[in-house]
Write a structure and sequence with these properties.
42% of the residues lie in helices and 11% in strands. With 65 residues, the protein is α+β, with helices and mostly antiparallel strands. The N and C termini lie far apart (25 Å).
Length: 65
């Protein structure tokens, strides 16, 4: 099983900032995430990759689809 990713890991892998991810969460867009504690957000690698590779989401990021 894949390890859950931190927002920092998602940012490093896909070229977005932690602030962008936080903004997407507030706007209810972006890859699915899990709230594991008061300030603990994690992402499932497969969900993140699928979201970033979906052409319909390309307007939100610069990751090559």
């Amino acid at each position: 099983m894949n390890q859950l990713m931190t927002p920092q890991q998602v940012g490093a892998e896909y070229g977005v900032t932690v602030q962008e991810l936080a903004e997407w969460r507030r706007k209810k867009i972006g890859p699915a995430y899990y709230v594991l504690g008061t300030r603990v957000i994690r992402y499932m690698p497969d969900n993140v990759d699928q979201w970033f590779r979906d052409p319909a989401n390309s307007r939100w990021h610069d990751f090559h689809v």
